[in-house]
Write a structure and sequence with these properties.
four-stranded mixed beta sheet; 11 helices; Rossmann fold; PurE_dom; alpha/beta; P2CMN_synthase_LarB; Nickel pincer cofactor biosynthesis protein LarB
Length: about 250
């Protein structure tokens, strides 16, 4: 990248000011430093974590990213903030179950072969599952959803297992005792990313029981992200899927 910019300056295609702007790694908004260079380093632009930010923060960061034609994903954003953000930036799509906003600005979305499977134990886990699924779709990956297939009725999972086995990677979301990733991990030959949720009764300890079950899984090939971290599960699945597509 640096060599290309220097050649363009040398040939007169770029001015010094234009080159300086392209080489800038972040934009300082005072309250935030927007990392415009992240897509070049990691392949995907920065994601806005909505919790703790005001609607004004989200709007200003989004406008900075829009100026660079970057796709914008905002996670963990409540309805009150959504209303204010969409009043200023109506091109945002709101996904209520996942508490997520997405705006497509870039035309160079990568094209991948194959799909990611999102396997969810119960309907109560849907907000985390949809956060994972929509994160993957925002990065241009096909997602196939298999919901309400928890271990209390294992036949529901087995009805879809042939299609799940054809995925590049599977993200498994479960609360309660968190056993579903171990079951899936023993039935497929690809990586499984386990996402524990805070869904469950008192001894669930807000997802800690599911987290510990997943960390102690006897099935090989399982990686675990933090409690309720659907975004992390979906993002890591995309990274694996991208590597698989480089073969």
């Amino acid at each position: 990248m640096l060599e290309d910019i220097l050649k363009q300056v040398e040939s007169g295609e770029l001015s010094a000011d234009e080159a300086r702007e392209q080489l800038a790694t972040f934009e300082n908004l005072g309250f935030a430093k927007v990392d415009h260079h992240r897509k070049k380093r990691q392949g995907f632009p920065e994601v806005i974590f909505g919790e703790g930010k005001t609607s004004t923060h989200i709007i200003d960061i989004s406008r900075a990213m829009m100026a660079k034609n970057e796709n914008i994903l905002v996670t963990r954003v409540n309805k009150e903030k959504v209303k204010k953000v969409r009043k200023e930036l109506p091109d945002f799509e709101y996904h209520e179950i996942a508490n997520l906003l997405f705006m497509k600005n870039s035309t160079d979305t990568p094209q991948f072969q194959g799909y990611i499977a999102i396997v969810c134990a119960g309907t109560s886990d849907l907000s985390v599952a949809e956060e994972a699924a929509l994160t993957a779709e925002a990065y241009g990956v096909e997602v196939r959803r298999y919901y309400d297939v928890g271990v209390a009725g294992i036949h529901r999972l087995l009805a879809h297992i042939d299609e799940i086995r054809q995925a590049t990677v599977t993200v498994v979301i479960a609360g309660m005792e968190g056993a579903l990733p171990s079951v899936v991990g023993g039935l497929v030959s690809h990586p499984v990313i386990a996402v524990p949720t805070s869904v469950g009764y008192g001894a669930n300890f807000q997802g800690l029981s599911a987290l510990l079950t997943m960390l102690n899984s006897c099935a090989s090939g399982i990686s675990v992200v933090n409690i309720d971290n659907g975004f992390g599960g979906g993002y890591n699945a995309v990274l694996i899927h991208r590597l698989a597509n480089q073969k």
